[in-house]
Amino acid sequence: MTENADKNYSPEVISTYVWDAIKELPGLAELHRSTLQSLGERVHFERLGPVRLDERDGRRVLDLHIVITPAASLPELVPQIRTAVRSYLHSMTGIDLDEIGVHVDDIVWEPAAGA
Description:
Layout: H1 11-22, E1 28-31, H2 35-42, E2 51-56, E3 59-68, H3 74-93, E4 99-107
Parallel strand pairs: 3-4
Antiparallel strand pairs: 1-3, 2-3
């Protein structure tokens, strides 16, 4: 573990790193934010965002809430997300993750042509 792993990173920094790691993956639309979470971000109110890094029973656990497209193949996408997040977060912060939970909160449906 590198010396950076002992530093505390804000939820916003962790979310940015996670998004940077996965934003180009096919089938992924965005990180999921509820209306209240979006408002909370604007007024800097404490909230649970789409990326949550916790320590549970001495294990570092990251929960990630995403929005996918209808074309997403979850059996392919989820392992790609886990690999990319684990590698990128470690390279940027030194944090080693013991577990990554990927939660699909919504699907973005593209409007029909001419609608």
